[in-house]
Amino acid sequence: MHFLGKNLRYLRKQSSKTQSEIAALIKKGQTTVGNWENGISEPNLEELLIISNYFDIPLDTLLKADLSEMSLFQRQGTSNVTPYEHGEGDLSQVKEDKWSYVLQEIKSLREEVERINARLPNQEGL
Questions:
Q1: pTM (2 decimals)?
Q2: To the nearest 10°, the Cα dihedral for 24, 26, 28, 33?
């Protein structure tokens, strides 16, 4: 779990959440989240799954990749894994800023498609 602490801190700050807010999500104390971020201790599997689902990121990416060096598109990847189902109320609210990320990614993809289309030969006669 080389990148877990760094990634947890990065994701938390990107979503403007405090350690206390993340701790409340997983029913732990703020100190526990701080210890995870500083590599003093590590969450158990259930806690990792809650964090992974909350931030909408594959668990293997959360653990193995430096998220601060990756784009949103790379972080989300193409996972075919069925999401872990939490008990009622654990993750029922959707992050407000999630849609702004999605819209920004769509805009970037559209711009890329337009750049590619501009480079293609004219195919009107086909």
A1: 0.56
A2: -90
